[in-house]
Write a structure and sequence with these properties.
By secondary structure, this protein is of the alpha+beta class. The protein has one domain: TATA-Binding Protein (2-Layer Sandwich). The protein contains two helices and eight strands, in the order βαββββαβββ. An eight-stranded antiparallel β-sheet has the order 2-3-4-5-1-6-7-8, with helices on one face. Strand 2 and strand 3 (37-44) form a beta hairpin. The radius of gyration is 14 Å and the shape is globular. The relative contact order is 0.21.
Length: 124
């Protein structure tokens, strides 16, 4: 289980992302501290999961969705990315191997899911 989950969505409106999360979970708090940042808290199996949605996180077209918890329903970033793609039908990117403090993974190695399929690629 990862300590947190983060995915990047290409050209996906924040309202659509929020609707996806509201359809999957019981959202108990929603606030928008800035024009490009929305923070949610939802409940999952008696745990409060904090989510930050940040527009223009990787260039102008990508939105980051960061789940700050190890209690999410997904085993890793890739499982979350697959569900997001299935629900939102927009390109999703995530770290290929998950993040580890002492890991030796290539920071440019990513996983991409889109209408053409899914697989690893170098995001530079």
């Amino acid at each position: 289980m990862q300590t947190d989950i983060e995915i990047y969505l290409l050209s996906c409106p924040t309202d659509k992302i929020i609707s996806w999360l509201e359809g999957e979970f019981n959202v108990i708090e929603k606030k928008q501290p800035t024009a490009v940042c929305t923070k949610l808290t939802f409940e999952y199996q008696q745990a409060d999961i904090k989510v930050t949605i940040l527009e223009q996180a990787a260039g102008k077209r990508f939105t980051s969705v960061w789940f700050d918890s190890d209690k999410t329903p997904w085993e890793d970033d890739m499982a979350c990315a697959r569900q997001a793609f299935s629900s939102l039908n927009c390109e999703v990117r995530c770290n290929y191997q998950g993040w580890e403090e002492a890991g030796e993974q290539d920071p440019d190695q990513w996983w991409r899911i889109n209408q053409q399929g899914e697989g690893p690629f170098i995001w530079t």
